[in-house]
Amino acid sequence: MKINEKLNNEILELNKKLKDELDLKIKSYKEAYHFDDEKFFKELAFCILTPQSKALNAWDIIEKISENRLLYTGDELELVDYLNTIRFKNTKAKRLVLLRELVGLEPKKVIFFTDDIFEIRRWLVENVNGMGLKEASHFLRNVGFGENIAILDRHILRVLKELNVISEIPKTLSYKIYLEIEEKMRKYSNFVSIPMDRLDLILWYRQVGYMFK
Question: Residue 213 pLDDT more than 80?
Answer without folding.
Answer: no
